[in-house]
Amino acid sequence: MVxxxxxxSASSINTVMKAEIVTIGTExxxxxxxxxxxxxxxxxxxxxxFRITRIVTVRDDLDEIVSALREAxxxxxxxxxxxxxxxxxxxxxxxxVARAFNLEVVLNEEAKKMVAExxxxxxxxxxxxxxxxxxxxxxxxxxxxxATPIRNRVGSAPGILLKVNGKxxxxxxxxxxxxxxxxxxxxxxxxxxxxxxxxxxxxxxTTGTDESTLAGIISELSREHPEAxxxxxxxxGGGVDISITVHxxxxxxxxxxxxRIIKSLETRLKDxxxxxxxxxxxxSR
Length: 285
Description:
The protein has about 280 residues and is an alpha/beta fold.
């Protein structure tokens, strides 16, 4: 469990924290492997209250990764990467992070201990022939100076947690099981960062309209409520569903905010002769 805590930069529940996801791997770019990590991270970050502004996939190329990181942190408050933390030559995320933000790469003693413990466990289980920390294994403990390693309870490569000019970079492995477990260990820190503790999603079913008719209304509501994500979905056979996800300090606050948005939506739909015929809660946390 990662115990690092950062002071939240969200001054109120109306502050929207932007996040970008950078998935790293040539195998993703050429379509050899389907990138499921980005979709999973986007859903989880959204549920925590972040607004995902961009998802980028780059090859295992140092210059491309450096460029993607700099651009992402120039726009967002939080950047999460997946992939490139392993022991092989094409695993270069740590080096890219260091270069992107003008930092040295150094042997992190805490990360070294994590790697040693991981290989000791693998050796006891008979999954590796030796627990020795080879140069390839030590590579996984080489982190940007000032970074905090994130324990990998499933695999061997530690993640990276770095604060840069008041913003945050989190680097996770590309293996989905490892990435998901490490992300869940970070959720308390991420909640404190975004300053919200609850979210609520609802789907509304309308009748007698199409997406083009609702486009202007959806845009207006989104501008009026930047703390909410509002999206229309064309329904096969006619009609449109509208999904709304809100974030606030508590579930009660979420419900108040959601009711306010729905009331405003119903008023505008009524002017168009459109009715909401069903409301269903998708998720709450």
